[in-house]
Design brief:
The protein has 7 helices and 6 strands, in the order ααααββαββαββα. It is an alpha/beta fold. α5 crosses α7. The longest helix has 45 residues.
């Protein structure tokens, strides 16, 4: 049987609807698989990136905690602290409070971290209304005038300071001050209590043994 162009055209027109349906079906299948491919590829890439990010942080910064934005909690605390400060001068003023013992005998806050290895800082925590504090005041003033900023018999530079716990409660909180007066000794290695007598001779003897 000889197939002519006319017969082909006649056959196509007769089955035109069927051919169109087949072509549409094939195109639909092709587009479906293309869509699935790109969708799965995007999900894989995002998940892979997240896994890489988490792994990188774990391997390189295990000692720090990260939030969802990749910032450390320490960074967040620092930024919050900076946001609450009125200006840069206040920030430096807060830091300088810890160094006040070098230039004056009345301080607002204290920390061992600002001491050199050969320095000793003896702080009297007091309150103006405290009767025992008033009794100790003349003795403390004499000791300060005699020993503040000077070397003791062991070659340590001794500083004496007083901190008004009533006016500066934040300065007492780190040291669990339960009553006044309380005398604490600060060195580079730590903080300890002075539990001896509060006489001139007793405290002066203690100063020279540091």
């Amino acid at each position: 049987m000889k197939i002519t162009q006319a017969s082909l055209m006649k056959s196509f027109k007769k089955h035109q609807a069927i051919y169109i349906c087949i072509i549409v079906f094939i195109l639909a299948v092709i587009f479906y698989f293309i869509y699935k491919y790109f969708k799965s590829s995007d999900e894989f890439d995002q998940e892979s990136f997240n896994d890489y990010h988490r792994q990188f942080l774990y391997e390189n910064f295990q000692d720090q905690m990260y939030n969802m934005d990749g910032e450390t909690e320490n960074d967040l605390d620092y930024m919050n602290k900076m946001a609450t400060m009125e200006d840069d001068s206040n920030m430096y003023e807060n830091f300088n409070d810890y160094e006040d013992f070098r230039s004056q005998d009345s301080i607002k806050s204290v920390s061992k971290d600002y001491l050199a290895d050969n320095e000793v800082l003896i702080v009297k925590f007091y309150a103006p209304w405290c009767g025992y504090c008033k009794q100790l005041a003349p003795t403390w003033d004499q000791l300060t005038a005699k020993h503040n900023g000077k070397m003791n018999k062991n070659g340590k530079k001794v500083f004496l300071a007083k901190l008004d716990g009533d006016a500066n409660p934040e300065g007492t909180k780190p040291y669990n001050i339960r009553g006044f007066p309380t005398i604490k000794v600060f060195t580079k290695n730590g903080v300890s209590d002075y539990n001896g007598a509060r006489s001139m001779d007793a405290i002066e003897s203690f100063i020279n043994t540091q």
